[in-house]
Amino acid sequence: MPRSIYSTFFLICLGIFFTINASVYRIDERPSEDATEVFNKAFKTTADTIIIPNPGAPWIVRPLKFRGSNKVIIWEKGTILQAKKGAFEKYDKLLSINKSHNITLIGYGATLQMNKAEYNDGQWRHCLGIFNSENINVYGFTIRDSGGDGIKVDAHKAPFYSKNIHIKDCVLDNNRRQGISIISAENLLMENCIIKNTTGTNPQSGVDLEPNRATQRLVNIRIRNVEVFNNTGYGLLMWLTNMDSTSLPVSVRFENCRVTGNGRGGIRVRNIGDNSPKGLIEYSNCTIENNSGNALEITNKSSTSAEVKLTDCQIVSSRKTPIVINPGGSSKPGGVRFINLRVKHPKNKTLLYSEGNLFDISGNIIVESNSSPATNIGAASENISLTINERTISF
Questions:
Q1: What is the DSSP secondary structure assignment for residue 302, as one 8-state letter?
Q2: Where would a tag sit more exposed on the chain, N or C end, judged by fewer CB atoms within 10 A?
Q3: What are phi and psi of 211, to 5 degrees?
Q4: For residue 238, what are the β-bridge partners?
Q5: Of all residues in the chain, what percent carry a pLDDT higher than 70?
Q6: How far apart are CA 47 and CA 124, in angstroms?
């Protein structure tokens, strides 16, 4: 079969429909103790499509850096890209994509893998880094055993964000710092992924949204149909310490996500204080179940900053308090909406707790419990319009 026809047929079989009308470069070399230059040569080809075959043994490489545009790179099923032992310094990545445009990586059944056990310092040896890039698609990979993040999306130079990123059908497993860190992005969609077993160095969470400066952004970030479980830290973490009122409004939506069995808690939103950006952070139809810490923890969230909203979500079997909203440094902490939040609430546990007064908390919570749910917030709280409906059940 001609190579150009082969590539188009392969993509159609995966349900990914776009046309390849140009040449195809297929790696013909065999694996060796160091295949780095094989990949560097392939990345520099003028062909629009690169095929990375499965030779029956891992491709062992030093850090790979890609910069280019208008390419499709296909890893055949079973292909393993393996970090070379002892070859990765503190800030190296297995594969970094920098200042690139219109790049699609397809790896259904393929693996990007590092050597986590040897990385005892630092937190930056990521498997896949996407920096200052636009129109990047990542489909179908297992990404595992990094010394930092499975995937990091960031931008170190102006305009300080990556744009139009699509991550689909990936498994992020046993990474050291995070499953994925989204530092700065506009129009990012992550869907149908599994993020699990993150452990090693803090925060050790599944998904972390954490800009490093006020000029970075979280605009139209959508994470849907994602399972996040058995991470040492939190399942879903947002930490907006480094943004301020000059930052663009944030727009983040988690939809149909399942957050279970994480060590420190399910969802944590922190440091969206008095001088933080406006916007909306929404969790829709998500399940937060059987996490070791609090199911939902919101700290230092000002009622005048970006709103946090939970719509049609459920909290099941929280081992600690289902909902904690703590003032932190905010002068008027709050700005949280609950729309049809369902909580399966064990006996003798507080439903909602705060260390101080809250402001502008509204919505409705349906509680299934074998005892009346308790709330414990400051006596001077204001603009609290929260309806709690009870259903008595046995546990």
A1: B
A2: N
A3: -60, 150
A4: 209, 269
A5: 93
A6: 32
Say which residue, 17 or 388, is predicted with more confidence: 388
**Is the peptide bond prior to 203 cis by the omega test (within 30 degrees of 0)?**
yes
**5 inside domain:** no
CA distance 323 to 297: 6
Q: Look at residue 48 and tell me if it is in a domain.
A: no
Q: Report d(CA 260, CA 269) in Å as an integer.
A: 17
Residue (of 93, 174, 167) closest to 126 by Cα position:
93
Residue whose C-alpha is closest to residue 98's, from 126, 56, 61, 57: 126
DSSP state of 248: P
Q: Which residues have a Cβ under 8 Å from the Cβ of 172 and sit 6 or more positions away? A: 143, 144, 150, 151, 179, 180, 193, 194, 195, 196, 198, 206
| pLDDT the model gives residue 22 | 54
User: Nearest Cα to 62, choosing from 41, 82, 91, 76?
Assistant: 82
The number of beta carbons lying within 10 Å of the beta carbon of residue 385 is 10
- Expressed as residue numbers, the domain containing 307 is 206-395
Q: Which tokens is 33 given?
A: 């103790």
In a domain, 385, yes or no: yes
How long is the chain?
Answer: 395
| Distance between first and last Cα of the chain | 61
- For 308, the enclosing helix (H) or strand (E) is strand 307-311
For the chain, what is the mean pLDDT? 92
d(CA 371, CA 357): 25
Number of domains in the chain: 1
pLDDT per residue as tens digits for the range 160-215: 999 999 999 999 999 999 999 999 999 999 999 999 999 999 999 999 999 999 99
Residue 20 confidence (pLDDT) above 60:
no
pLDDT tens profile 312-326: 999 998 888 999 999
Q: Is residue 254 part of a domain?
A: yes
Global confidence as pTM: 0.93
Tell me 315's DSSP state: E
Res. 369: pLDDT tops 70: yes
CB–CB of 151/112 below 8 Å?
Answer: no
